[in-house]
Specification:
Layout lengths: L18 E7 L2 E7 L5 H8 L18 E4 L2 E4 L12 E3 L12 H8 L9 H14 L5 H7 L10 H14 L7
Parallel strand pairs: 1-5
Antiparallel strand pairs: 1-2, 3-4, 3-5
Helix pairs in contact: 2-5
């Protein structure tokens, strides 16, 4: 019997079957089925059509995919979607409220804190997380705590100015 005559039956292992998860996404429950290896980034972009979160390096090194999970900033390219079943996920699309930009979004516009804009969603989500953490008080602390978010255009001075302006304009209680 030649190899061409042999029957091949491929059976996906049980662990490879899609898993149903629920994310509290930008304030609304969203249910979806994902394979166990699907990253949160790919779930957001490919399954939920939320393309504001960008795929930059896909290795957790650039920060373009930063989102907030239960209020904490994470790189979504290194996080499996199944690990966040039931979590509150906030993307850049979910920051604005009632048609008004989030203070950081408005500050980025006001301070021209973007050039090509590719890193901007991750920068903004990371800065929201930074403000919630409440650890940054000085420009150097902001730079250090934002160092995981790269901007290839070099808009760092404007990004810093936008974050500082938003921190001044946003009461401490509103950051939590």
């Amino acid at each position: 019997m030649s190899p061409r005559d042999a029957q091949t039956i491929e059976v996906a292992p049980e662990w490879a079957a899609a898993t149903r998860i629920t994310l509290r996404l930008n304030g609304a429950a969203r249910e979806l089925a994902v394979e166990p290896w699907t990253t949160l980034l790919d779930a957001l972009r490919e399954h939920l059509d939320l393309t504001g979160t960008k795929k930059g390096c896909d290795h957790g090194q650039c920060g373009a995919c930063t989102v907030l999970v239960d209020g904490v900033r994470i790189v979504s390219c290194l996080t499996l979607a199944v690990m966040k079943d039931g979590a509150e996920v906030t993307t850049v699309e979910g920051l604005a409220r009632d048609g008004a930009l989030h203070p950081l979004q408005a500050a980025f516009v006001e301070h021209d804190a973007f050039q090509c804009g590719y890193c901007t969603p991750g920068q903004i989500c990371s800065a929201v997380g930074l403000m919630r953490e409440g650890r940054a008080r000085t420009a150097d602390e902001i730079r250090e705590l934002m160092s995981g978010n790269l901007c290839r255009c070099g808009a760092y001075p404007n990004i810093l100015a936008a974050i500082q302006a938003a921190m001044r304009a946003t009461p401490e209680a509103a950051r939590r």
